[in-house]
Design brief:
signal, six-stranded mixed beta sheet, 359 residues, D-Maltodextrin-Binding Protein, domain 2
C-alpha cells in the first residue's frame, strides 16, 4: 500500500476482535479485553523506603515508542523509577553492539523491539518480555524523483536504514511482498551514535545520496517533511508492526524486592497508555523534550505508533516468523515456537491487573 507523505495512515488501536490479550482466564472471566474492564486506579504507589534506590529503567529516548515510560516516570512513578538511555543488554550490565543503546550501569527493566529480544536472548536465555509498550507502524519514505511509485520500484535503489533492527526487518518484509530480494537493493547504513546518525537521513535524501529510507519515528516524519511533494510513502501495518516491549530477567522477576516494583511499573504503564489514548498532548511534550524535536513534528509522526497498554497475544507468532530472518545474522538455525515461548512472561501483567482490581 502506498500513500502520499502528506496523508499518513491513521492506525487505530487493534479491536477487541483482533487482539488476544494475555490474561488469566479465571481472573478475567467475562471480560474479553482490558478495554472492557473497569478503569485502573491512578493512586500513586507509596514512596520508596529511605535508602532504596529507584528502579532503573532503560530505553531508547529518541523514539515515540518510549512515550508511556516517560509519562509514567513523570506521574505515577515519579521518584520511584530512574530513566536512562540503553537497551536490554543493560539488564546484564553488558555493552550493546548498537552504539545508540550503549548504557552505563545495570537496569532492572529495559525496553527494545522484539528484534533485539531475538538477537540477545541466545546468549541470555532468561530474558523475559513482560509488556507491550508500543506498536511501531513503520513506513518507507522514498523520492518520487528517483522513479519510485511502487514498492517494486525499489529494485536497484539505495535505501537508508539501521541494520540488525526492526526497521531493517520491516524493509525485508516490504521487499519480499513486492517480489524484490534483499540482494536487489543497496542498504545504506545509518546508525545512531556514529558519524552517520539517523538525523543525517534527511540530508542524504535531499542530496540524492539515497533514494528511500525506513526507520522509526520521528526521523521518518523529518524525512517526509523535507521531501514535501517529492515524497511517497509505503506502509502495510497488517503485515508487520514492531512490538516495542518492556523486558526484564527471570532473576529479577524472582526477586522478592524487585518483583513488586516491576509489577507497579507495569500498572503505571497500563495507566499511562490509557491516558495517552485519551489525551496524547502531555506525552507528546515529554517525547519532544526527550527527542529534542519540534512538537509539531512529533504530532505529525504520532499516528505511526499505538499504545495498547497490555501484552499483545500475537507476539509469539511474530517472533517465530522473524527469528528466521534474525538467525541468518549469525548463521544459526531458527528457533521453534516451543523454544521461543518461554521468552514471554504474562505473570507480571496478570499480577498487576489483579493487584489493581483489589485497590
Amino acid at each position: 500500500m502506498s500513500r502520499s507523505a502528506n496523508c499518513p495512515p491513521q492506525p487505530s488501536l487493534p479491536s477487541a476482535v483482533r487482539r488476544t490479550v494475555l490474561m488469566s482466564p479465571v481472573l478475567f472471566a467475562g471480560v474479553s479485553t482490558l478495554a472492557q474492564a473497569a478503569p485502573f486506579s491512578s493512586n500513586k504507589p507509596a514512596p520508596l523506603p529511605v535508602g532504596q534506590m529507584p528502579l532503573q529503567v532503560y530505553g531508547n529516548l529518541d523514539t515515540l515508542e518510549f512515550a508511556p515510560v516517560l509519562l509514567a516516570g513523570a506521574t505515577r512513578e515519579a521518584g520511584r523509577i530512574e530513566i536512562k538511555r540503553g537497551g536490554i543488554l543493560s539488564l546484564y550490565d553488558q555493552k550493546s553492539d548498537l552504539p545508540n543503546l550503549k548504557a552505563k550501569g545495570r537496569s532492572h527493566a529495559a525496553t527494545n523491539s522484539e528484534t533485539q529480544a531475538l538477537r540477545y536472548s541466545i546468549a541470555n536465555p532468561d530474558l523475559r518480555i513482560i509488556f507491550t509498550v508500543s506498536e511501531g507502524v513503520y513506513r518507507i519514505v522514498a523520492r518520487r524523483s528517483a522513479g519510485i511509485n511502487t514498492l517494486a520500484d525499489l529494485r536497484g535503489k539505495r535505501i537508508g536504514t539501521m541494520p540488525r533492527t526492526s526497521s531493517a526487518y520491516y524493509l525485508h518484509r516490504c521487499l519480499v511482498s513486492a517480489g524484490v530480494s534483499d540482494e536487489e537493493v543497496t542498504v545504506v547504513p545509518f546508525v545512531s551514535g556514529t558519524d552517520k546518525p539517523l538525523a543525517m537521513m534527511k540530508q542524504a535524501l535531499l542530496k540524492h545520496e539515497i533514494d528511500a529510507v525506513t526507520i522509526w519515528e520521528p526521523q521518518m516524519q523529518r524525512c517526509a517533511d523535507a521531501l514535501g511533494a517529492d515524497a511517497v510513502s509505503f506502509f502495510n501495518a497488517a503485515d508487520y508492526r514492531e512490538q516495542f516491549s518492556l523486558m526484564s530477567t527471570q532473576a529479577n522477576l524472582n526477586d522478592p524486592i524487585l518483583r513488586p516494583r516491576i509489577v507497579s511499573l507495569v500498572q503505571s504503564l497500563v495507566i499511562a497508555s490509557e491516558q495517552i489514548r485519551r489525551d496524547p498532548l502531555p506525552a507528546r511534550k515529554l517525547v519532544a523534550d526527550a527527542t529534542r524535536q519540534d512538537i509539531n513534528v512529533i504530532e505529525r509522526a504520532w499516528p505511526h505508533n499505538t499504545y495498547p497498554g497490555t501484552l499483545l497475544g500475537n507476539l509469539l507468532d511474530t517472533m517465530v516468523e522473524e527469528d528466521v530472518w534474525v538467525a541468518k545474522e549469525t548463521g544459526r538455525a531458527p528457533r521453534s515456537r516451543s523454544q521461543l515461548a518461554p521468552l514471554i512472561d504474562d505473570s507480571i501483567l496478570n499480577e498487576a491487573l489483579r493487584t489493581q482490581w483489589l485497590l
